[in-house]
Amino acid sequence: MKSDKSVVELLWEIATLVNCIENMDGNELYDLKMFLEMYVRKFVDDEYEAQKLMELIEMKKDLYHRTVDTIMSRGEAKIINNLLENGFTLDEICAMVNLEKNYVLNLLK
Q1: Entry pTM
Q2: Residues 6 or more apart from 46 whose CB is under 8 A from it?
Q3: What average pLDDT values come out for the chain (109 residues) when binned by 10 residues?
Q4: Is 77 exposed, middle or buried (0-12, 13-18, 19+ CB in 10 A)?
């Protein structure tokens, strides 16, 4: 079966349909979005079109990225706690890890 539409047009339609799905498990929806992201990375050469497709897919809001953000902040908090336990001041730590003091304080909560 052949289509007269371009790869970008087809991926745009698929991403639009996936975004309309309401009654699906979060993990299944995540899998669909991951496959769409793979196809965009493999078949879309134009950087602008790829970016627009990725925004449509909304990978930033999915379970994977939320999990990665949580793991990263826990890792940062662990490192900061270890530095504090080893005698470094909060100001020294902020300078070493190049993070704002308020951000570091929020990690330690």
Answers
A1: 0.51
A2: 8
A3: 87 88 79 89 92 79 59 78 88 84 82
A4: middle
